[in-house]
Give the backbone structure.
Amino acid sequence: MATLRVQLPEQFDFSRPEEWPKWSRRFERFRQASGLAKEEDEESQTSTLLVYAIGDEADDILKSFKLTTTQLKS
């Protein structure tokens, strides 16, 4: 059986917030197709979303929320 490699969607463009619903749907399809959705480790899923999919700007915004370590994992 061949291994399917699924590419992340392009990083979200924060200058176009109206595109969030479309981008979010694309990321969810990526999660399903890549098997990421089956990962039990929420921290891995969150890191994939923030660091690799959305980008640095999302990480900066997340830091401004002053969440606990536990909250950051999910």
About this structure: The first helix runs from residue 20 to 34. The mean pLDDT is 84.
